[in-house]
Every structure is written in structure tokens, then in C-alpha cells.
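Researcher: Please translate sequence to C-alpha cells.
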Amino acid sequence: MRKVAALVRPRAATFVDAAAALDFFYEDTVTYEEKAEPDLHKDGAKAMLDGIADKLGALPAFDVEVIQTTLDAFVTDNDLKWKDFGPTIRVALAGRKGTPGLPEVIEALGADRVRARLHAAAAL
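Model: Translation complete:
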């Protein structure tokens, strides 16, 4: 819990702000914000979500540095742009575009939850 709270500390001015920013870490299912959900239906989103879920699921270690390297390699190998990739992954994992750093969010959620959320979003 301390690690997750540290992720939102720079963005949260009050405890209410922190609670709102942390909710997706503790929910079993993702609730997608209406303005964010269209990112999951863009051309290529399903393949991208399933592809990165498989890459992250195959990692021998699940820490921020390894995750960042994996994300960067996936973007490069698939000729993607971060501006298209990042928001879609954030929405799939958190239900919103505004989150703490993506590798940190992925590490805090854990491999099983990340893989499940990415595959679930791809199936929409």
C-alpha cells in the first residue's frame, strides 16, 4: 500500500484526491471512463493489448526497469508511437488516461492482474 500511495503523492493535494487516484489499484474489475473507453476500440488496439499482455506475462522479473525496457521494445518492434500506445494501455489497466508512470502502475498491479486486465480490455 505504501508503494502505491507514493505513486500518487505528487498528484494528490488531499486525501480525497489520493483515494480517487488509487481506486483502480484495489478494484477487481476496471471501470472505464466514458471519455477514455474509445481508445480501446481504435484500429489495432486488440492486437496491441493482447501482444503486450503476452510480453509482460513472459517476463522473468517484474520490476520497473524490466517493464520499461519491455514496453520500449514492444513500441519499437511494432512500429508504434508512444502517444498511441501509452494511453490505450493506461485505459486498459486503470480505466482512465491519467495515471502515475506506466511501468510503476504495471509493477504495482502485478503480472497476473496486468495480464488479465489487458486481455479483458482487448476482448471488449
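Researcher: Any highlights?
Model: The chain has seven helices and no strands.
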